[in-house]
Amino acid sequence: MKHTFFYYSYKLIVSLLFVLITTLVVAQKVVRYELYVKDTIVNFASKAKRAIAVNGQIPMPTLIFTEGDTAEIVVHNLLKESTSLHWHGLFLPNKEDGVPFLTQMPIEPGSKHVYRFPIIQSGTHWYHSHSGLQEQVGMYGSLILNKRVTDSSFRKGIDDLPAIPIILSEWTNYKPENVHRMLHNASDWFAIKKGTTQSYAEAIRAGHFKTKLKNEWKRMLAMDVSDIYYDAVMINGKTTSDLSSFKAGDKIRLRISNGGASTYFWVNYGGGPITVVANDGNDVVPVEVDRLIIGVSETYDILVTIPVDGNAYELLVTSEDRIKSASFFLGSGNKVLANPLAKLKYFEGMKMMNDMMKMNGDMDLMGMDMGMQKMDMNSVMYAEENALNTLNYTKLKSPIKTNFSSNIPRKDLHFELTGNMNRYVWSMDNKVLAESDKILIKKGEIVRITLYNNSMMRHPMHLHGHDFRIINGQGDYAPLKNVLDIMPMETDTIEFEANTEGDWFFHCHILYHMMAGMNRVFSYDKQNDNPLLPNKKWAYRQLQKESNPFHLMAQNDFATNGNDGMAMIQNTRWSISTEWRLGYTDMHGYESETHIGRYIGRMQWLMPFIGFDWRYRKQGIHAVEQNIFGQKNTKDVRAQLSLGVAYTLPMLVTLQTEIYHTGYLRMQLKREDIPISKRIRAAFMINSDKEYMLSTNYILAKNAGIRIHYDSDMGFGIGITMNY
């Protein structure tokens, strides 16, 4: 009997050891992916264009892991430029985070890089390039981390449902570098393509002439909810997809990631309500809504049901500006469409913005409680707003407590999100990354961040390497996220535990906002060296440069009475510009004005400058001109240095005052972009030299127009205007 007891005890111990060893082996399974990054040609919107494919596909392959795995991802760079990959929303060692010049060096052309990290979480995530604007041309893909069945958080009826990874994106036929330059140059072309110019003619037709006047009196541009016209919106790389394998009563889990570069997407379903069960890779208490908007880089897990056999129900994804959409049909048979979204009421939004904007460019909250998406300042633009149950952050609740102990030390930080649509500068506390140092935090402390959005655009703020609690009224059960969509005028608070050392990016995930400077870096005090960055100071300077590049703008008018144009390069603060006027006769002569200036203030309405004015005209050696102040100046030849200042007045008129080294004073009023109609722009100039100019320009295409003008020196002219 004794021997039997020991025999069975021995077998039990051996069995338990076998199970333990097997579990450890499984838990530490290495899942390896080989990714080949290569140039390709695509035709997503009726035009063949260059893109970047990974393993020959766009989006990039869906990567699937199970919590407990070890990820090993080998990136082979077959491009002629450097690249990288960032694992959005993942907890991992800092050197694996994939931000060039911050956590690693770029992956150079012809080389490979191995990312290796443990999978210590679950949820819907995604991955993308963090190099330049590569994300816009194809480098984005789904990243799915499955729960273990034995996980205590495993939810029957949710985590065991059929799951479909979905990644949303947009496509432009323009080179993203050109898109970025056009945004900085305040081009009207995207608004023309979208039909959102909000010109004076359109304002009059809509009964909003006073609204338009007030808008420009407060030095604001036209109202908009997005920056760019996109040629296509896509779901998993297609504008329309079908999944016919489901039947009536089936519940499906859609694991949706917004991999768009700058587009928010509305999601609604033709088969009825949507149940939200997770956000940014974290479980939430299920909440039923009619629709939701997915901010740039956010992820949502939703449940939908097939109501009736013989029908295919549309999951409709629509860009926030409601210009483009894509469809995903679930089920087979007759197509049941989701309700399309009505066109936005832009002038109603402009009117509301006028009331909330002070003359100095600050927002006036007027006593309203703005936060957590509870009130969308653009809600007056949405015709169906009050009729639908729309998700906002206050409805998200964690199924488990997420609160921190009161004994942990805390660090409070405050940031104001700032921006200038006129020059497309996006910043935090009126500083871009190039103007800011790293923000030191200590391991073990709770970092609490209060964000106030004092700009006219919403910003999806993303923190690398950490989840944060959003303080949304749910107390101890505040949801965990890694992206906060903060709308205009909102003040929101987030907090996270500083538990993973390294340098971590915190930025707006609208790609063009990030590249324009809306970034910060949280850096752990007394952290270990990163072996992938042999010279961290130099590398950080390279990262800073990426947020403050110079952009070129040029224009030339080939007219019957002469040739005039301008060229300008500028970055966040500095502007170097040259204007020229070339006559066809010696009488008209030629002249040029060059200014080097620096913009001052949050709204950048003020620019001191130094200048050089040079001109020649054949009008007689003794010919002089007299300005309104009684000062005289030679008309034949002029070569003068100047000091001056340009200031943007109400109605977007520029007042320029400069004094030359001779003591000569010149003042000038000028505006070049008065929106008369959808395609017609007017301009004027008048100065103290008694010179004046009037013109109208009809915009033919992105880079061309027909211009008619009268110049006090050169007379009447008509010609073709080319711009870049």
The helix count comes to 8
CATH fold-level name of the domain at 551-723: Porin
CATH architecture of the domain at 551-723: Beta Barrel
Mean pLDDT: 91
The radius of gyration over CA amounts to: 29 Å
- Specify the oligomeric state: single chain
Principal-axes geometry comes out as globular
Overview of this protein structure:
- The protein has 724 residues and is mainly beta.
- Among the domains are: 25-145, Immunoglobulin-like, CATH 2.60.40.420; 551-723, Porin (Beta Barrel), CATH 2.40.160.
- Helix content is 11%, strand content 42%.
- The protein has eight helices and 45 strands.
- The strands form eight sheets. The chain has a twelve-stranded antiparallel beta barrel with strand order 32-33-34-35-36-39-40-41-42-43-44-45. Strands 10-9-12-17-14-15 form a six-stranded mixed β-sheet, with no helix packed on it. Strands 11, 13, 16, 18, 19 and 20 form a six-stranded mixed β-sheet that branches.
- Strand 32 and strand 33 (562-570) form a beta hairpin.
- Helix 5 (209-217) packs across helix 6 (346-356).
- The radius of gyration is 29 Å and the shape is globular.
- Mean pLDDT is 91; it is low at 1-27.
